[in-house]
Amino acid sequence: MSAGPGGHYLVLGAGGLGCPALLGLVSAGAAAITIVDHDVVDASNLQRQVLYTTADVGMAKVDAAKVRLRSRDPRLHVRALRLRLDATNLAPLLAAQPPGTIVLECSDAPDLKFMVNDTCLAGQLPLVVGGVQRWRGQVQAVQRGHACLRCMFEGPPPTELQEPCSLVGVMGAAAGLLGFWMAQLAVALHAGEPVAGTLWAIDTRTLLPQQMRPRPRPDCPACGAARST
Ligand SMILES: [Zn+2]
C-alpha cells in the first residue's frame, strides 16, 4: 500500500477518539488508512464510538471499522491490524509504514501516547496526538524540529494518578469534536501546513480553545535527541 494523493494515515486506537477521527479522515478524502486496535466492540461504549452499532458488539473493532469505512468509500484502502501496542511492536510497526504516513494517536493510555511521541520522532513520522477526559480535551501536531508532547508535559502522570476513561467518563460529543479535530490536523500536516508544535486545549463547557505554541525544550529527551541525529 503506498500513500496516494489523499495520503496514508495510521490510526492507533479505534475507540471514542479513533471513531470520529476515522470518519473525519474519510470525509477529507484520505486514500488509505491503517487501523490498529486490540479490543472488541462493547455495548457500554457504543454512544461515543460512533462507527459501531449494536450489531457489531463482540466483533473486533478494527474489522467493524473497516467494514463501516469501506461502505462509505469503496475506493478507500483499509488495513485492519488487531494488535495490542507495546514497547516491542510499536517501532517495527511504524518503520513498516509507507513514506508520508501521518500517525494519529487515539488511545486512552497516557503511557502509550508518550511512547508513540518518542517513537514517531525517532522514526521521523509526523504525529497528531489527542486526549479527552470528562469535558476537556487537547490535540497537538508533533513533528521533528517542533515542540513535542514531552516538551509540554514531560511524561505521563504516575500510574496511581491515572484515571481510566471507564471510571471518570468522557462526554461523547467532546470525544467527537476532538476526534474530528485530530483528523483535520492530520490532513493539514499532510498538506504541509505549519501546524506542527501547536497544542490546542479546550473545555467543551465553554468551547473557548487555548492555543499554545511553545519552543522545543533543548533538554527534551524525545525531540532534543531527534534534533541532534
Ligand atoms: Zn520534545
What does this 3D model show about the protein?
- With 229 residues, this protein is α/β, with parallel strands linked by helices.
- The protein has one domain (8-227): 3-Layer(aba) Sandwich (Rossmann fold), CATH 3.40.50.
- The chain has helices at residues 18-27, 61-72, 90-95, 110-123, 149-153, 165-168, 172-190, 223-227; strands at residues 8-12, 32-37, 77-82, 102-105, 127-133, 136-142, 199-203, 208-212.
- Strands 3-2-1-4-5-6-7-8 form an eight-stranded mixed sheet, with helices on both faces.
- Helix 1 (18-27) crosses helix 7 (172-190).
- The protein is globular.
- It starts with 7 loop residues before the first strand and ends with a helix.
- The model has no long low-confidence stretch (mean pLDDT 91).
- It binds zinc ion.
Please outline what is shown here:
With 229 residues, this protein is an alpha/beta fold. The chain contains 8 helices and 8 strands; from the N terminus they run βαβαβαβαββαααββα.
List the helices and strands and how they pair.
Blueprint: E1 8-12, H1 18-27, E2 32-37, H2 61-72, E3 77-82, H3 90-95, E4 102-105, H4 110-123, E5 127-133, E6 136-142, H5 149-153, H6 165-168, H7 172-190, E7 199-203, E8 208-212, H8 223-227
Parallel strand pairs: 1-2, 1-4, 2-3, 4-5
Antiparallel strand pairs: 5-6, 6-7, 7-8
The structure holds zinc ion.
